[in-house]
């Protein structure tokens, strides 16, 4: 039996972080968490770039363009969609999630999902660096691990 898993040690890969400006109070904390997690695991400042987009709706298109560019080994998508009084929440969160998932599958580039979909601002704050951790940091770690795992899979074609 062979067991293959990714690790959390950077080896010169390049990462893109795409952050929604909408709900910037939350998203800024997610971005800081992602940058900190990358740095703590050996990713140098010149090995990642940060792109700001207007809102969560714009994440999939931007992530796709970055994946297609060939410049990045993984893309980290960060945002916050907070439920309001209208069905807008359902439309944005569902289509944005599907869009991000399809980019990773179609382009064979890891797309880490660090988009909060919460009922209220309090829940979002808890997930952006409070009691529930920082989901931006968690997404960055997932990106690191997936890059490592995919490298092993692609290099070990028996």
TrEMBL record:
The keyword RNA-binding does not apply. Keywords: Riboflavin biosynthesis, Transferase. Pfam families: DMRL_synthase. One of its GO terms (cellular component) is riboflavin synthase complex. It catalyses: (2S)-2-hydroxy-3-oxobutyl phosphate + 5-amino-6-(D-ribitylamino)uracil = 6,7-dimethyl-8-(1-D-ribityl)lumazine + phosphate + 2 H2O + H(+). Belongs to the DMRL synthase family. The keyword Transferase applies. It is an enzyme of class 2 (transferase). Pathway: Cofactor biosynthesis; riboflavin biosynthesis; riboflavin from 2-hydroxy-3-oxobutyl phosphate and 5-amino-6-(D-ribitylamino)uracil: step 1/2. 5-amino-6-(D-ribitylamino)uracil binds at residues 22, 56-58, 80-82, 113. It comes from Pyramidobacter porci. NCBIfam families: lumazine-synth, PRK00061.1-4. GO terms for biological process: riboflavin biosynthetic process. This is 6,7-dimethyl-8-ribityllumazine synthase. The active site is at 88 (proton donor). GO terms for molecular function: 6,7-dimethyl-8-ribityllumazine synthase activity. Catalyzes the formation of 6,7-dimethyl-8-ribityllumazine by condensation of 5-amino-6-(D-ribitylamino)uracil with 3,4-dihydroxy-2-butanone 4-phosphate. This is the penultimate step in the biosynthesis of riboflavin. (2S)-2-hydroxy-3-oxobutyl phosphate binds at residues 85-86, 127. Its EC number is 2.5.1.78. InterPro entries: LS (IPR034964), LS/RS (IPR002180), LS/RS_sf (IPR036467).
């Amino acid at each position: 039996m062979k067991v293959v898993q990714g690790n959390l040690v950077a080896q010169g890969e390049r990462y893109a972080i795409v952050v929604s400006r909408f709900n910037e109070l939350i998203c800024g904390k997610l971005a800081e968490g992602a940058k900190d997690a990358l740095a703590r695991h050996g990713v140098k400042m010149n090995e990642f770039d940060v792109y700001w987009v207007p809102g969560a709706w714009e994440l999939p298109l931007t992530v796709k363009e970055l994946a297609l560019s060939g410049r990045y080994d993984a893309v980290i998508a960060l945002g916050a969609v907070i439920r309001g009084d209208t069905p807008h929440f359902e439309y944005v969160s569902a289509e944005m999630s599907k869009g991000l998932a399809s980019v990773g599958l179609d382009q064979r580039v890891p797309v880490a999902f660090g988009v909060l979909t919460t009922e209220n601002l309090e829940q979002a704050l808890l997930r952006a660096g409070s009691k529930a951790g920082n989901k931006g940091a968690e997404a960055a770690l997932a990106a690191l691990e997936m890059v490592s795992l995919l490298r092993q899979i692609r290099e070990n074609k028996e």
